[in-house]
């Protein structure tokens, strides 16, 4: 049973506090924050104890989601509840951040009142909660269909499958009562996380792809949705269905609500979506990259005659001409004592008067790590052929498809 639930910012600010049983004072918040910040390392233990009070926490989007208890419940149950609370907060508020929690504190308190009764978990279902939640969500950036940049039609089979920008789905699942538009919509995201290691000579040494298909539903009623994937999709090395055009993954995992009776033959997923966000499929591809790495780095590290280490970095982008890359950053570890100066758009490293600088200092440079986001890109080739709703929705029904590839770990050795 849960005694208290509170949400803290990364700086320890009290955003949400709910006491269900009156067993402990509010000072337990400060006790938890002092314990979690006093620990060394970036991965503090999920369960901590202080004078008979147990703290179980999860950290998402820079926020601490904490439950305290004086009993001995299953930690996995509490962790699952905290993760579900964070997901519901994102569903109802549109985004998960310190600002959105502050702006929607009344809504979050109402959610907690319906989800927990005297410390006992009652429900975490979006479909059930929407019948009781009356507080309107406050969005920091209102959603507008007229502010979609680079929106285009996707595919020839469905004229309603479109590509929307990343901010399109960041709005509450419960629209304001005065709004007339944006009620019959469903967003499908095909997200890939890329882990790559490139050797010093430009040879691809490791390439892993972790992906998922995620839906966010704003439909008032929908008994079934059919998601058509690539017909030539092959799972495992022994199930290649086509020739060079085949799309292959090593393994797939599906949500328990997904029906697979048409998947083996037609590569169609059938799911009954509930309002909110839901991951319907996860997939993985190991030790293989179907396309060329999006970035190649050509580094040069040398020591000159005045006892300086010179670093030259040449970055090449191998994306198609009309593609874009967002939030690109490069991190280069350098020896201690390094100094650098900026001249225009050029960063110049110079190592001056560093004691003990030798040829071994060259080994302290690198490896280089990159982070980036590639919109409208799917590195495995997995695509959505169509989205079909049953029964057919009355009125205008919008179906948005978005592809994005993130760099999970992109390392280039020097």
From TrEMBL:
SUPFAM superfamilies: Second domain of Mu2 adaptin subunit (ap50) of ap2 adaptor (SSF49447), SNARE-like (SSF64356). Belongs to the adaptor complexes medium subunit family. Keywords: Coated pit, Membrane, Protein transport, Transport. It is found in: Membrane, Coated pit. InterPro entries: Adaptor_comp_med_subunit, AP2_Mu_C_sf, AP_mu_sigma_su, Clathrin_mu, Longin-like_dom_sf, MHD. Signal peptide: none annotated. One of its GO terms (biological process) is vesicle-mediated transport. Residues 183-413 form the MHD domain. This is AP-4 complex subunit mu-1-like. One of its GO terms (cellular component) is clathrin-coated pit. It is a peripheral membrane protein.
């Amino acid at each position: 049973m849960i005694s208290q639930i509170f949400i803290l910012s990364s700086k320890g600010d009290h955003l949400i506090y709910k006491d269900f049983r009156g067993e402990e004072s509010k000072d337990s918040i400060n006790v938890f924050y002092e314990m979690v910040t006093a620990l060394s390392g970036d991965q503090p233990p999920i369960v901590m104890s202080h004078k008979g009070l147990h703290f179980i926490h999860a950290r998402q989007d820079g926020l601490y989601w904490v439950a305290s208890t004086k009993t001995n419940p299953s930690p996995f149950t509490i962790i699952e509840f905290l993760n579900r609370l964070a997901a519901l907060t994102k569903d109802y508020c549109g985004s998960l951040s310190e600002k959105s929690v502050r702006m929607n504190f009344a809504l979050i308190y109402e959610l907690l009142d319906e989800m927990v009764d005297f410390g006992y978990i009652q429900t975490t279902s979006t479909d059930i909660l929407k019948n009781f939640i009356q507080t309107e969500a406050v969005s920091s950036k209102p959603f507008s269909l007229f502010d979609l940049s680079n929106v285009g039609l996707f595919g020839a089979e469905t004229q309603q499958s479109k590509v929307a920008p990343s901010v399109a789905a960041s709005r509450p699942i419960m629209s304001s009562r005065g709004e007339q538009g944006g009620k019959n919509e469903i967003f499908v995201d095909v997200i890939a996380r890329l882990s790559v290691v490139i050797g010093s000579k430009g040879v691809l040494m490791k390439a892993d792809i972790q992906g998922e298909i995620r839906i966010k539903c704003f439909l008032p009623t929908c008994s079934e949705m059919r998601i058509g994937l690539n017909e030539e999709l092959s799972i495992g090395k022994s199930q290649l269905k086509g020739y060079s055009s085949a799309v292959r993954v090593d393994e797939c995992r599906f949500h328990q609500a997904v029906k697979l009776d048409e998947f083996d033959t037609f590569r169609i997923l059938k799911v009954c979506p509930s309002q909110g966000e839901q991951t319907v499929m996860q997939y993985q591809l190991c030790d293989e990259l179907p396309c060329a790495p999006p970035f190649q780095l050509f580094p040069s590290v040398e020591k000159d005659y005045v006892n300086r280490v010179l670093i030259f970095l040449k970055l090449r982008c191998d994306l198609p001409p009309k593609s874009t890359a967002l939030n690109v950053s490069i991190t280069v570890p350098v020896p201690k004592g390094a100094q650098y100066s900026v001249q225009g758009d050029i960063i110049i490293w110079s190592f001056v008067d560093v004691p003990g600088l030798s040829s071994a200092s060259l080994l302290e440079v690198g490896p280089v790590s990159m982070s980036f986001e590639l919109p409208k890109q799917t590195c495995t080739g997995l695509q959505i052929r169509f989205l079909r709703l049953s029964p057919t929705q009355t009125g205008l029904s919008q179906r948005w498809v978005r592809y994005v590839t993130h760099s999970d770990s992109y390392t280039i050795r020097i």
